Structures are given as structure tokens and as C-alpha cells.
């Protein structure tokens, strides 16, 4: 039986960042990945956006500190194209409160009127079936990265420090034995002081196999892609908050999607029935989309790992000594992974995360009457 100080379940971007920072602290680290290679789950299928425009302090700072790290990492291919939120009248007041908080934390965010919002492209502020747009906010430090490049670089650094990655290794069960955990996998048994659950969409199932109730479920999301555009126009990743429709440039193409409310579960493949309602709201606001062609073969799907409040679960599991969660990011894992890696290293090596207050994201919040009320969920 092989023994580790920390055994991480999941070698996506969260698990990789944690592995690097834990190995950096001198701990013996192992990673279990059920897929043939790392970064093929939500990490590899991410829309790759990073933003600081959240409404809760913890989420803002998780992303802001992570962006600073990506900015200094060539493998991240960080490109600050910005995020543009088109805000309807009904959300304007609460959205501006979020901007005030962001700016108070030293995060660059601008408020723009309709004319300023149309700097890059035209849209219809008043569109049939949608709420009128009153104004916009723009985050100049927001942008896009290469999640696969980030993940593989963290794993390279972790391996250099002695971490071991086991691919094609399924987590089967775990039970506490004395002061440690015995973990059963498709490749045999492991013993570890800490299990770190970074299994993404499978985090809830990993918990169940260890006899723990961790409220993380998979939810399928679609990303549609256009054919190449003869004269691509670089512009921010844009989100219409009245409909949930979003789009951004991808080389010489455009990718777009819309938050859908389908039931959770492991449902595979593209749901082409979602294309029509997505385009309906997109064309209403951005009529010029009609000139673009769809490339079905370039479109893709992936899983969000969702929690009841669409915020991650970070830190030690109550009642299960030695079990730590870093999961349930609900589409925000890539943009928060760098800082999460640092915090989980503190949580395990120092006994408690201290660089940032993660109490609002701990498991115990689900027993509270007032939960985290993050409003900028896309």
C-alpha cells in the first residue's frame, strides 16, 4: 500500500493547482485521475473566461488573486479582452452595488452608459421579449486564458517537486482507519492523512463512495461555435443579463451560449434543442449575429459542477477528519483555481486557510439560514 500525506481526487485545473502548492510545502502528494489524461473534463471544455465582476468579497478576491498569477504565467496565455455586462433596468441598482464593492477591493471595473457599451459592436437596448438595457459594466482586467496550459503547467511543477499523477485510476471507496484514510482505487489501495476532493462534476459521487454527503451535481452546458469570420472583430466577452446570452471571440470565430436550466445529471452529448432558444434571445439583442454561420462540428458541451447556491465548497469536511473539499465551482473553477491552490495548501499544511477568508464557502454554510447570495452567476 502506497502512502501519501495528501491524496487528491481529480487532476483538472483545481486538483493540479492544489497539488503544486501542497508539494511546494514539502508534502508527499498523489493525484488520482479516472481519465486517460488530465484536464479532459470541465477544465478542457471550459469557455476559458476569467473575471472579477462578482458581488461577494470572497468570489471577487479568489478571481482577482488568480488573475494576477495567470498574468505572470506564460503558459496561461492570459489575454485581457475584458468582460462586458449588459445590465437591464431591474438589476441596475443591485449591480452597481456590486461594482462599488469591486472597486473598494481595488479591482478595476468601469460603469458605462449605452453609448460607451456600444464601443465594440451595436446592440438593441430595447428588444422584443427582453428587458431594456439601462447601461453596462466593463472589467478591463477580465479576459480569457488557456485552462489546459495552466493545468499542465501546474502538474509539471508538482511532478518536479515529487508529486505522482495516476491516470486511468478510478476512485472506488474510502474509509477512515485510525487517524488516516484508506482509499481503494481501480489500481489498488492507498493510505493518506488527507483526501482532497477536487473531482469536479464527479465530486458528489466521490463523496458518496466515501459515505459523505457533498451537494455537488453535474449540469450539462453547451458552447456553440460559428464558422470562421472573414473580418473578425476583437471585443469583450459579453453577457446580456436580461437573458443569460453570452458570446466572445475565439481566434477567427465566435463562441456563444446561454445559461440553461436543465436537470442535473450525467447526460452526454450536444443538446441541439437548446440552440433555438439560445439564438432567439441572441438575435433579438444582436441582430448582426444572423450574418454568421454555425459550425456544428466545432461546437462542444461540458459539465458545470453545481451546488445548491452555485458557489464552491472549500475546506475541511465537518465530521470527517482529514477530508477536504475543493469542488462545486459552478462554472468558476478556471478563474479561481490559482488562489484555491494556495488556500488549500494553507488549509492542510497550516490547519486553516488564512490568506483569504473562505468561511462563506465552507460546507457548514448549508446549515445556515442566510447563505452566500452571489448575484453574478452565469
TrEMBL record:
Residue intervals of the FAD dependent oxidoreductase domain: 5-346
One Pfam match: DAO
Keywords: Oxidoreductase
Gene3D superfamilies reported for this sequence: D-Amino Acid Oxidase, subunit A, domain 2 (3.30.9.10), FAD/NAD(P)-binding domain (3.50.50.60)
Keyword Magnesium attributed: no
PROSITE patterns named among the record's database cross-references: PROKAR_LIPOPROTEIN
Classification via SUPFAM superfamilies: FAD/NAD(P)-binding domain
Enzyme Commission number(s) from the entry: 1.4.99.6
Alphabetized GO MF terms: oxidoreductase activity
This protein's name: FAD-dependent catabolic D-arginine dehydrogenase DauA
Amino acid at each position: 500500500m502506497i502512502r501519501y500525506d495528501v491524496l487528491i481526487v481529480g487532476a483538472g485545473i483545481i486538483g493540479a493547482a492544489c497539488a503544486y502548492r501542497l508539494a511546494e510545502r514539502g508534502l508527499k502528494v498523489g493525484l488520482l485521475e479516472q481519465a486517460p489524461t488530465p484536464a479532459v473534463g470541465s477544465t478542457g471544455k471550459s469557455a476559458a473566461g476569467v473575471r472579477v465582476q462578482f458581488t461577494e468579497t470572497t468570489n471577487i478576491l479568489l478571481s482577482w488573486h488568480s488573475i494576477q498569477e495567470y498574468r505572470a504565467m506564460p503558459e496561461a496565455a492570459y489575454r485581457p479582452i475584458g468582460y462586458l455586462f449588459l445590465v437591464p433596468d431591474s438589476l441596475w441598482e443591485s449591480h452597481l452595488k456590486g461594482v462599488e464593492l469591486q472597486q473598494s477591493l481595488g479591482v478595476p471595473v468601469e460603469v458605462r452608459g449605452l453609448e460607451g457599451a456600444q464601443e465594440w459592436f451595436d446592440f438593441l437596448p430595447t428588444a422584443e421579449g427582453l428587458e431594456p438595457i439601462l447601461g453596462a459594466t466593463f472589467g478591463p482586467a477580465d479576459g480569457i486564458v488557456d485552462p489546459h496550459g495552466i493545468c499542465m503547467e501546474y502538474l509539471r511543477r508538482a511532478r518536479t517537486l515529487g508529486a505522482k499523477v495516476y491516470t486511468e485510476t478510478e476512485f472506488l471507496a474510502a474509509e477512515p482507519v485510525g487517524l488516516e484514510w484508506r482509499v481503494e482505487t481501480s489500481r489498488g489501495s492507498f493510505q493518506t492523512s488527507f483526501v482532497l476532493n477536487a473531482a469536479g462534476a464527479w465530486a458528489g459521487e466521490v463523496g458518496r463512495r466515501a459515505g459523505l454527503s457533498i451537494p455537488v451535481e453535474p449540469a450539462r452546458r453547451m458552447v456553440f461555435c460559428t464558422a470562421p469570420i472573414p473580418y473578425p472583430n476583437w471585443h469583450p466577452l459579453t453577457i446580456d443579463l436580461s437573458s443569460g446570452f453570452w458570446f466572445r471571440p475565439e481566434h477567427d470565430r465566435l463562441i456563444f451560449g446561454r445559461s440553461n436550466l436543465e436537470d442535473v445529471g450525467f447526460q452526454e452529448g450536444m443538446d441541439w434543442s437548446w440552440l433555438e432558444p439560445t439564438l432567439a434571445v441572441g438575435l433579438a439583442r444582436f441582430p448582426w449575429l444572423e450574418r454568421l454561420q454555425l459550425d456544428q462540428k466545432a461546437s462542444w458541451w461540458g459539465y458545470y459542477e453545481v451546488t445548491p447556491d452555485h458557489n464552491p465548497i472549500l475546506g475541511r469536511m465537518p465530521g470527517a477528519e482529514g477530508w477536504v473539499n475543493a469542488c462545486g465551482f459552478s462554472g468558476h473553477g478556471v478563474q479561481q483555481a490559482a488562489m484555491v491552490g494556495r488556500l488549500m495548501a494553507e488549509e492542510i499544511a497550516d490547519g486553516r486557510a488564512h490568506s483569504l477568508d473562505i468561511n462563506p464557502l465552507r460546507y457548514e454554510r448549508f446549515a445556515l439560514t442566510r447563505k452566500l447570495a452571489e448575484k453574478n452567476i452565469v
